[in-house]
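Encoded backbone
================
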Amino acid sequence: MPTEPVANRAPLQPNAFIPLPLGAVKPAGWLLDQLHIQAEGLTGHLDEIWPDLGPNNLWLGGEQEGWERGPYYVDGLLPLAYLLDDEALKAKAQRWVEAFLAFQDESGWLGPVQAPRYKPYDQWPPTIVLKVLTQYHEATGDSRAIEVISRFCAYLRDTLDERPLFDWGMHRWADLVLSIHWLYNRTGEAWLLQLSDRVRAGGYDWMDHFAHFAYPDKMAREACILPTHVVNNAVAVKTPAVAWSRSGESGDREAVYRALENLDRYHGQVTGIFSGDEHYAGKSPSQGTELCAVVELMFSLEVLLSLLGDVAFADRLERVAYNALPATITPDFWAHQYDQQANQVLCTVAPRQWTNNGDEANIFGLEPNYGCCTANLHQGWPKLAASLWMATGDGGLAAVAYAPSRVTAKVADGQEVTVELQTDYPFKQELRFAVHCSRPVEFPLWLRVPHWAEGAMVQLGGEQARTAEAGTYQVIEREWSEGDEVILRLPMAVVSQRRYRDSVALSRGPLVFSLPIGERWEQIGREPPAADWAVHPTSPWNYGLVEGEAQVVQHPVSAVPFDPAAPPVELKVKGRRVPQWQLEHNSAAELPQSPVESKEPLEELTLVPYGSTHLRVTEMPRVEG
């Protein structure tokens, strides 16, 4: 059974919402289907087919790799195993956990002293191990995890001056501080807070980086440095809030918003992520975004929700999770991209205008370009599922992000309750919550109303529905009885957003919509099911959008939620070909400045969710008439 939720202990700042331990939230509906697909795909079998995670991995007593890939993999494998209560996956995860627990020397150092090709005593891989062990302890209560984390923190306390943070660990120090604070909240030992202060002091100053943002343009290859790396930035988005949880300084808290504002202003993409292939790459939808950045930004937003609680963080989390994440992994979860493009019209091994990535960065395969994403992609869906619900400081439960699920936790009077959410969200707009309890119990139920949901309505039982203000939490505080229901309706208007060079992109609720392009898949390496694939277009892609009313067409959600062959919702719109817009450097050329003229015939176009595409045009020129 999972342990109880633990809030920040003074003098840390109180959580806006208290994370529930792994296992308290269970997926249902389409999300459960999605997690089963993941288990049957790469996550469930990666160690069997990829030598880097095989029995010869240095973490497992072998001689290969031994840096971040094993910890990365288990950081997603372990929560997936416990969310599905899958004994085979739990056994796979436990093998790694036992290796982590045993791989600590007398000094407290955790893991190999030096992996091949890397500097000795690199604190970054153990930082990921700590993330794994915190989840493991919450799911199992195994006290060995606390002991190992504590000994490693003591090692840092005694050696940080001699062996300061460097490279990746120096730029991702917030992940280390999160685990130090996690331990402090359970032990109350004051030296841990002093250690977190020293880690911050030795880490990169992201607050200054975002306050005085010096990188408004696409990076030149020779100018790329660790502070411009897209994954470092995805991790860093939460850093000011992690710092604020200790400092309490308003400047730290406000720096979160400066970070997101600057990343959006100069490098933002329509899916809520920012470009980085694999460094800052500007706003063109033909630039790429690394998959590691997608899953790390999701985790950062989940942390931000817990610490600060802003509805906007959940809105962005859903936009990233329901668009950028599924689009860059095949529906069967056996292949992924290193880089995805919002306007992605050709996936081949060919030179593109990346900042510093290789020619194979946008093909679908086992480890295109570099294997970090092969190891790290697994945390995206499981951690989202585990973060859908959180506890509140007033003894209640909060639905902070939406997908079919159920949560079981103790509420105000210590009684255990279950709240079940039945919904096809984000594809449909109705959410039905049902409370299950052994006796009547009073507690507050917090329901998030997204900023885009103007005219939202909440209805309790047979009572009259009432308006729920967009961008707020609706708090229903009452005595609940078995079977009580709340219905939340979130109107999903089709929204037209101005994008790069005055192009247009359409969204509906958290979903972004794209023009799908016909696909021809070509196997170019390895063997199925984990083969490498190029994807060629078989239909025209260079369309512009004639702005006007979009017709929404709904379909059932299939057992493969983001299957391009069966999208759950479509938009019917009008458009014309834009002949002057062609390929350039094996990608869609620079978007023509909108509005554009076209004398091509007016056509009806069908747009589908971004996550249901492999080849697509998402930001489209605006065509007059």
